[in-house]
Every structure is written in C-alpha cells, then in structure tokens.
Amino acid sequence: MEIIDKKKLKADAHGLKPVVLIGHAGLTDAVLAEIEAALAYHELIKVKIRAEREERKQMTEMMVQRTGSALIQTIGQMTVLYKRNPNK
C-alpha cells in the first residue's frame, strides 16, 4: 500500500477545476465511468456534487468505494479524489 501525501495533493488540487459534475440525476453508472476515466488520465481530480450535505457524503463514500480511489478532501460541494495510475 502506497503512502499518500494528502497535504501535497490538497495543494496540487487547489488550482484544479472540477472535471465531473454530479447533478440532479445523482451518481449513475455513467458518471462513475466518467470518474474512473478522469482518474486514470489525471490521477487527481475534483468532482462537484450538487446535492444536500448528507447525500454528498453518501455519494463521496460510494465514489471512493467503487473507484478504489483515495478521498483527499471535501469542501462544500467539491470533492477531491486521487488514484495513482501505475502506467504513468
């Protein structure tokens, strides 16, 4: 298991724009596939979740579980995820 430097990743994520937006349709399989593709390409991504706090928390937990990514931080509607791409 690799050690993740969350402090550095938070700093790296600061300037990023969200690459995935989750709207009223919620966390669908298509959205999860898009998150997977974005993680494979970028490794570190921001996801904007437009939902109530508890729903955002549940979606974030599901994203982390289904994609195998690490949760770096959550601020309001923004969630930052990281998944190392061994092929990069």
UniProtKB/TrEMBL annotation:
Keyword Lyase: no
InterPro entries documented for this protein: RNA-binding_CRM, RNA-binding_domain, RNA-binding_YhbY, YhbY-like_sf
PANTHER family named in the record: RNA-BINDING PROTEIN YHBY (PTHR40065)
Lineage of source species: Bacteria, Pseudomonadati, Pseudomonadota, Gammaproteobacteria, Methylococcales
UniProt protein name: RNA-binding protein
Record keywords, A-Z: RNA-binding
MF annotations from Gene Ontology: RNA binding
Organism: Methylocucumis oryzae
Pfam families attached to this UniProt entry: CRS1_YhbY
Gene3D superfamilies: YhbY-like
Domain (CRM): residue spans on this chain: 1-88
